[in-house]
Amino acid sequence: MVNTIGVIGLGVMGSNIALNMANNHEQVAVYNYTRDLTDQLMTKLEGQTLTPYYELETFVQSLATPRKIFLMVTAGAAIDSVIQSLIPLLQKGDIIMDGGNSHYQDTERRYNELHAHGIGYLGIGVSGGEVGALTGPSIMPGGDLHFYNEVAPILTKIAAKADGEPCCTYIGPKGAGHFVKMVHNGIEYADMQLIAEAYTFLRNNVGLTVEEIAAIFDAWNQGELKSYLIEITAEILRKKDDITGLPLIDVILDQAGQKGTGKWTSLQAIDNGIPASIITEALFARYISALKDERTQAQAILAGPANRTQALDKEQWIEHVRQALYMAKICAYAQGFTQYKMTSELYQWNLPLQNIALIFRNGCIIRAEFLNVISDAYDKQADLANLLIAPYFADKTASYQQSLRNIVCEGIQSGVALPCLSSSLAYYDSYRTGISNANILQAQRDYFGAHTYKRNDMEGIFHTNW
Ligand code: NDP
Q1: pLDDT band per the 50, 70, 90 thresholds, residue 383
Q2: Which of 22, 312, 412, 442 is the most buried (most CB within 10 A)?
Q3: CB 165 within 8 A of CB 358
């Protein structure tokens, strides 16, 4: 039997990726290091042909050369372990693809090791969750272009499509694909938190019911906010709990989990001097949510503002929230794409920003209408310094900024925390401030540490004997 591709790791994602490949007429060999998942997958087949292997060696031997092996195993040590088992079984020119959520620096390390053996290594960002893996994810491959070209026919076939184009494009060398996936997840954190804050405001400040908010999200999903995350949030809000009959959302414990990619995004930004405050605020919102017991105790101790007696006009404030959410989303994506740009310059990756926006249009969790306007912005100006200053976004933020200000002010006055909406506004206002207060910081640094400062009216480095 000659198989065209092999998949290792048959958990949630790997089994569906294998089925997706089989649905697209690939001859797929599958292998998992424990037997059960392989057997489970074979019972799930609906007419597809997958060939199971229970030994790594026979799995590898079954593949047409150059061998193409797609790993979908737990990120971290498991990937290193699988790679070490594969190295003695592979030949020069064979290709390993890692579709897991690996840290891009791990991918670079693995790339370097496999490169020394003449084995191709592609770090592939995959987004779309369980369903996307089966029906078409967004795919972000990084590594050597000539190895990508060998597997591109398969990857583009299994990817989601947007306007008939595959949501898969070559991202750049070494860890670039996993880097792009990492920041995608950071943007996802911000997008999710912004939606959660819009919901909070509609419920607490505008006084709407869960059902009314679901209907509003449905309506928003017909316009410029149209996106997978808005769509599923409307569905979530409509779901009733089987046990109590209450909206399910009201019985879900308010402690958010995370698997680390948002944290990696923030850490990378911090390490490299990249402003990623909205993504980081979204991460911190998850961290503070985890302090449930402390928050419950603090609620009984700490004072908030006096109750607001004046009711908000519903129609007017629903529109304020919509505009504020869209404006904050612009700011969050502006930060995410700035992180792409600055890191691309740092590593000379030449990241294709327009194509990245295009492959996010379908398959992935942040898929949205909005990605089309981002793509247009880069189409008009490939070296755009920041999305905020693209004409479309500058006009949009000019007309929506007042709504964001209204929502943030009302949140502050009523004691409702809106960390990502507030952070978006602070970013917007900081970015458009030509003369900032950093002169105070420089003076303070010079005062206590003789760190020197530059002047705005002449060249040179100065120190004052304060
Ligand atoms: P699962 O936990 O369902 O699957 C993990 C797979 O890795 C299983 O097949 C598991 O085998 C295998 N595995 C674990 N340890 C080892 C090891 N030491 N050696 C060999 N194989 C091992 O996870 P997912 O399918 O959800 O995720 C797989 C990868 O895809 C992860 O890197 C994840 O971050 C990434 N990903 C997940 C997404 C999602 O929405 N779930 C989205 C995009 C990427 P066994 O069970 O037999 O131990």
Answers
A1: very high
A2: 22
A3: yes
Q: In whole angstroms, what is the distance from residue 192 CA to residue 325 CA? A: 11
The predicted model scores a pTM of: 0.96
The Cβ-side half-sphere exposure at 125, using a 13 Å CA radius, reads 32
CA atoms of 42 and 54, how far apart (whole Å): 12
Which fold, 5-174?
A: Rossmann fold (3.40.50)
Contact 211, 238 (CB under 8 A): yes
Q: Which CATH architecture has domain 181-431?
A: Orthogonal Bundle (1.10)
Looking at the CA of residue 10, tell me the nearest atom of ligand 1.
9
For ligand 1, atom 47, name the residue with the nearest CA: 34
Question: Annotated active-site positions, please?
Answer: 181, 188
Q: Where in the chain is the domain with CATH 1.10.1040.10?
A: 181-431
Distance 139 CA to ligand 1 centre (A): 17
Tens of pLDDT, residue by residue over 209-254, are 999 999 999 999 999 999 999 999 999 999 999 999 999 999 999 9
ipTM here:
0.97
Note if the bond before 66 is cis, omega within 30 degrees: yes
Q: CA dihedral in degrees (398, 434, 194, 265; nearest 10)?
A: 140
Tell me the three-class secondary structure of 392-411, residue by residue: HHHHHHHHHHHHHHHHHHHH
Q: Reply yes or no on whether the pLDDT at 70 is more than 90.
A: yes
Determine the atom of ligand 1 nearest the C-alpha atom of 34.
47
What pLDDT, on the 0 to 100 scale, is given for residue 84?
98
User: Which residue among 19, 74, 82, 107 has the greatest number of ligand 1 atoms within 8 angstroms of its CB, and so is best to mutate?
Assistant: 74
Which of 15, 38, 56, 73 for mutating ligand 1's site (highest number of atoms within 8 Å of CB)? 73
Report how far residue 61's alpha carbon sits from residue 63's, in angstroms, rounded to the nearest whole number.
6
Q: Which atom of ligand 1 is nearest to the CA of 259?
A: 34
Whose Cα sits closest to atom 11 in ligand 1? Answer: 9
Atom of ligand 1 nearest to the CA of 102: 32
Whole-number Å distance, alpha carbon 196 to ligand 1 midpoint, is 28
Give the whole-angstrom CA distance, residue 268 versus residue 280: 11
Q: What is the pLDDT of residues 419-439, one digit of tens each?
A: 999 999 999 999 999 999 999
- How far does the centroid of ligand 1 lie from the alpha carbon of residue 103, in Å? 15
Pocket of ligand 1 (CB under 6 A): 9-14, 32-34, 37, 72-75, 78, 81-82, 100-101, 126-127, 129-130
The pLDDT of residue 308 is: 76
Res 50: pLDDT: 94
Could you report the per-residue pLDDT of 2-17, keeping only the tens digit for each?
A: 999 999 999 999 999 9
Give span(s): CATH 3.40.50.720, the chain.
Answer: 5-174
Looking at residue 402, its pLDDT comes to 98
